[in-house]
Design goal:
heterotrimer, A alpha/beta (242), B alpha+beta (397), C mainly alpha (145), B: 397 residues, alpha+beta, 9-stranded mixed sheet, two-stranded antiparallel sheet, 12 helices, 11 strands, C: 145 residues, mainly alpha, two-stranded antiparallel ribbon, elongated
């Protein structure tokens, strides 16, 4: 589904200072996978996710989505691809404060080039129901709890029926109980809709069976583990990358 | 939901910023329109007054120039006299085609309540007249008979619905002239015959008699031959007739024109100050707002908004605010001009005439366009800048 | 928003009540002398004085706009405001009128002030009618795309 080939990203901080967030990463995420990116803060997880979505241009290397080189596309084509194929869940509160829950959820349908789909309102309601917020259609983000807001974000990420869901520490602002609820939701979506999920987190506790765990440190992928169904994480297949 | 609705929701969600931007648009549009309407209204009014005078040169007694202008322009009653024989002398000057005398009379100040308390009255000679008749003919093809008068726009009949009491003489008001915004609106026109009748009756009927000195006139209107050099003729008149002053109609209302020019300069200066200031202020507000909303706009990009969409949504917001602010500003400017025009006329000393609906619409359109243009211009740079930003960087803390 | 409108309504009510006393013809020292030598006020004075009758309900409506929290009360205040504004506009134009001479102070100053205040107070009242909503619960607007 997504392929990163020897991708490096260096940020220019101005005044000649640069910082390299991702160094020569080669990675392939297959369709239907549930991949978890872990690592300390500053290890390059978020940048890797942004690179995978074409939100930032790699300094070197190639990023392809379904075989298409993202950086050979025009802004319009790239945006269209993001809009249709990728759902986003961010670490920070990302709902537009001036829009209601319902309006936030249908927001991504505005950007589609192919006009209006009559099923969108229906789908928005269905998505909100799926995340358990069908009674908050007309509430504004400030009237919702952090967990509820993040559920709305998940509903929004699904409105255009994407194949890939990218989530950047979606539970970092939430308490433990809400965190596990949100994680359950991601597992449900992965199992129920057959979505490819790439989730960034800083804690191993969220990793569970069937997930491919990719650990990053200092901009490099340092290990990959496939958690198996009955043996747990420790006994999984481990492959350490030099 | 579309771009416009999204922009509208963003506006209502960002109260203070929206108010400031809209207010800037309001001030620019209101000031521009108010000034334009005022200056153009004054200029039209001056043109009309000069036109209606219909003479190439107006000859008045020396020293009466300002009084004459005050009467024509602001309706301040004036009275001055010169010998009637000047009429013949003027007619003899080469290049002069026609001459016609007029007498100017003033009513008693504050003579009666609630009608025009100060009225400038013009008596003309129907035999030689070439200035009053052309526009009088439109309304009264037969001309004015003895005892009949025609009034400016403000004159209304006070006696029995048709007449006006002038120095105890009841005259019939035959009609009103179109408004000019000048003193002519509170003037009364009648023939010399009627003037002498009024003077005669006033001896017995009025508190104070109206005196028209025998063989005297107030002003003589001169029409020159086509192609003649008006300035040369004016100089000739000045040389040959002692005690008179010729005013070329092109030079008439000099002081008002000067007043208008200085007003225009002031407006230009103020505009030159506030317009760039407003653009810079709006630009700064947008730059700040765009920075504040970097993350939000990054999110939009991540959700699939194109660069163009982001820039367009910011510009749509700006235009909507400009439109709202400018509309209110224009409404206020038109309201102020319409309601307070007479106060402006009397305090600035320039005449004023409301523009026709068509030219008003045109000026409103230009005002709206100007406000929209300034706001869009101010928001353009920040909008392009933010839309070009790397979404991943925009979303970082 | 309703606070802004309420303050505007109260301000315009004050202008309507106070301004005529300083801008009618009588304030400029002009009165009618009758045949027997008595001085009586001209009608612009009465039109100006009557503005108080429009200003009081407008001011009260403005206070309600500031204080009231229920939608019905706010809307009622708005309707009273519109009515008072219309009355304020009608007094010097239709009901009583002003002096005949357009260049007298009641026509150049008093009437424009009354009309401007009346029109703007009316606009504020109409706006109040539409922004009025219950304040107690944190109810969100209903409109959806």
């Amino acid at each position: 589904m997504i392929t990163l080939e020897d991708v490096t990203k260096t940020y220019d901080l101005g005044k000649g200072n640069t910082v390299t967030a991702v160094r020569g990463v080669t990675l392939e995420i297959a369709a239907g996978e549930f991949a978890v990116l872990i690592g300390r803060s500053g290890s390059g997880k978020t940048t890797l996710l942004n690179l995978a979505a074409g939100l930032t241009r790699p300094t070197s290397g190639r990023v392809t989505l379904d075989g298409v080189d993202l950086w050979k596309l025009t802004d319009q084509q790239q945006s269209y691809l993001r809009n249709r194929k990728i759902g986003f869940v961010f670490q920070f509160p990302s709902l537009l404060p001036t829009l209601t829950t319902y309006e936030n959820v249908i927001l991504p349908t505005m950007f589609g080039a192919n006009g209006h789909d009559s099923q969108e309102p229906e789908r928005a309601r269905a998505m909100l129901e799926r995340v358990g917020l069908s009674d908050k259609l007309h509430s504004y983000p400030r009237q919702l709890s952090a967990g509820q807001q993040q559920r709305v974000v998940i509903a929004r990420s699904l409105i255009n029926q994407p194949q890939l869901l990218l989530a950047d520490e979606p539970t970092s602002n939430l308490d433990e109980r809400t965190e596990s609820e949100i994680m359950d939701l991601f597992r449900d979506l992965h199992a129920g809709l057959g979505l490819t999920v790439v989730l960034v987190t800083h804690t191993r506790q969220l990793v569970s069976s069937g997930m491919r765990t990719i650990e990053m440190a200092d901009g490099r992928v340092v290990s990959e583990i496939l958690a198996s169904a009955d043996l747990g994480l420790e006994a999984g297949v481990t492959r350490t990358i030099p | 939901m579309n771009l416009l609705q999204l922009a509208w929701k963003n506006i209502s969600g960002n109260g203070l910023r929206s108010w400031v931007v809209a207010l800037c648009a309001l001030v620019v549009a209101a000031f521009a329109l108010f000034a334009t309407l005022l200056l153009r209204g004054a200029a039209t009014s001056l043109e009309l007054a000069t036109d209606r005078l219909g003479a190439d040169i107006v000859v008045v007694p020396e020293g009466a120039q300002t009084e004459m202008e005050g009467a024509l322009l602001m309706g301040v009653p004036a009275q001055f006299w010169m010998p009637e024989e000047n009429v013949k002398k003027l007619a003899a000057i080469p290049g002069v085609e026609a001459v016609s005398p007029q007498v100017y009379l003033a009513t008693l100040v504050g003579a009666s309540c609630c009608s025009v308390s100060q009225m400038f009255m013009i008596g003309y000679d129907p035999q030689t007249d070439f200035t009053v008749r052309p526009w009088l003919d439109k309304q009264l093809p037969g001309g004015l008979a003895r005892g009949e008068v025609i009034g400016g726009d403000y004159i209304s009949a006070t006696e029995a619905g048709y007449g006006i009491l002038v120095y105890g003489d009841l005259v019939t008001l035959k009609g009103n002239l179109e408004p000019t915004g000048t003193g002519l609106d509170q003037s009364l026109f009648f023939t010399l015959e009627t003037a002498h009748d009024i003077a005669h009756i006033s001896e017995t009927q009025a508190e104070e008699p109206l005196v028209i000195p025998p063989n005297q006139v107030s002003a003589i209107l001169v029409k020159t031959k086509p192609g003649a050099d008006n300035e040369k003729i004016a100089v000739d008149i000045f040389r040959n007739l002692p005690g008179v002053f010729p005013i070329e109609s092109a030079n008439l209302f000099q002081s008002s024109r000067a007043q208008l020019t200085s007003l225009l300069n002031m407006v230009v200066i103020v505009m030159a100050l506030i317009w760039p200031l407003a653009i810079v202020l709006i630009g700064m507000i947008y730059l700040m707002a765009a920075n504040e909303r970097r993350r939000e706009l990054g999110v939009l990009r991540a959700l699939g908004a194109t660069r163009r969409f982001v820039a367009e949504s910011l510009l749509t917001e700006a235009s909507l605010l400009a439109l709202c602010g400018a509309s209110v500003g224009i409404f206020l400017a038109v309201l102020a001009i319409y309601l307070f025009r007479r106060l402006i006329v009397s305090s600035l000393g320039v005449p004023f005439l409301l523009p026709s609906p068509a030219s008003l619409a045109l000026e409103i359109g230009i005002g709206l366009l100007l406000a929209m243009l300034s706001v869009v211009l101010a928001a353009l740079l920040p909008a392009i800048k933010i839309s070009r930003q790397d979404p991943a960087i925009a979303m970082r803390e | 928003m309703k606070a802004v409108l309420g303050v505007a309504m109260i301000l315009f009510a004050l202008v309507l009540a106070i301004a005529p006393a300083f801008t009618d013809c009588e304030s400029a020292g002009k009165m009618v002398t009758t045949a027997d030598g008595r001085e009586i006020s001209m009608k612009c004075h009465w039109a100006g004085a009557a503005e108080v009758a429009a200003a009081i309900p407008l001011g009260i409506a403005g206070i309600y706009a500031l204080r009231a929290r229920r939608k019905e009360t706010l809307r009622f205040a708005a309707i009273v405001g519109v009515g008072a504004s219309v009355a304020a506009i009608m007094l010097p134009t239709v009901i009583i009128g002003t002096c005949v001479n357009p260049m007298m102070v009641c026509n150049t100053l008093m009437k424009p002030i009354i009309l401007a205040s009346g029109i703007l107070a009316g606009a504020a009242s109409v706006a109040l009618f539409f922004v009025a909503q219950d304040e107690e619960p944190a109810a969100a607007p209903v409109a959806v795309s």
